[in-house]
Amino acid sequence: MSQSEEDKILEILEQDPLLAFSIYTQVQVKFLEQTATRIEAVLEEGIQGTHIQGGCFNEAYGLFWLWVLGAYEVVRTMSQHGDCFDSDLRSRILEIKRYLKRLRMPFAKQELPRWNRKEETKPIWGELSVTDVDTANKDLRFRMEGHDLTARAALKEFRDFITSIELASIRGKIPTGPSPYA
Predict the structure, then answer these.
(1) pTM for the complete prediction?
(2) Is-contact 81 126, C-beta < 8 A?
(3) Percent of the chain's residues with pLDDT above 90
(4) Confidence label for 143 from pLDDT (cuts 50, 70 and 90)
(5) What is the predicted pLDDT for the residue at 160?
(6) Is the pLDDT of residue 124 over 70?
(7) pLDDT at 139 over 90
(8) Distance of CA 176 to the CA centre of its chain
(9) Are 179 and 83 in contact (CB under 8 A)?
(10) 72 CB-side CA count, 13 A
């Protein structure tokens, strides 16, 4: 491989460092970013003054539901392979996983998260429901176990986490087994 080819590969990895971990994770992250951008556009378009268009509300809510599930699964995969990351990134992975877990459990399982495996699961009440449409900020607000969370804040937390990842923080690729076709 020539030096210019190596330089090009390094440039690509610097731009999208998760490629050094898993091409599939990088593809999933790109799709989550596209979905986040669409959610933000739908909220901008659908909330005018104190009015929200019903179709836009449904689309934003539905896309956010899928985005939460996807973002959590990306982070869960990364946390399961923590030895592929340096200690600082491992710590940040666990932090964003805890944040997303608060949203994911009610959306995915329709129950509240157990913070201790000995606890019984708790039924949800209104956690799947939008508790407020913040017309000033064009946002959806949810109340999860006494915490107010917004769609835009969740998108930003994940986006900030992903954009903070540097190539130097990735120590290895996701482990894979031998191909059954080899």
Answers:
(1) 0.86
(2) no
(3) 63
(4) confident
(5) 98
(6) no
(7) yes
(8) 23
(9) no
(10) 17
Task: Please give the average per-residue pLDDT across 116-138, as a whole number.
Answer: 69
How many residues can be counted in the chain?
182
User: 10-17: long-range contacts at Cβ-Cβ below 8 A with a sequence spacing of 24 or more?
Assistant: 13/167, 14/167, 17/165, 17/166, 17/167, 17/169, 17/170
169-173 contacts, C-beta under 8 A, 24 or more apart:
169/17, 169/85, 169/86, 169/88, 169/89, 170/17, 170/18, 170/20, 170/21, 170/84, 170/85, 170/86, 170/89, 171/83, 171/84, 171/85, 171/86, 172/21, 172/83, 172/84, 173/20, 173/21, 173/22, 173/84
Looking at residue 138, its amino acid is K
The better pLDDT of the pair 7, 57 is held by: 57
Handedness of CA 91, 103, 147, 152 (dihedral sign): positive
Predicted local confidence at residue 176, as pLDDT: 84
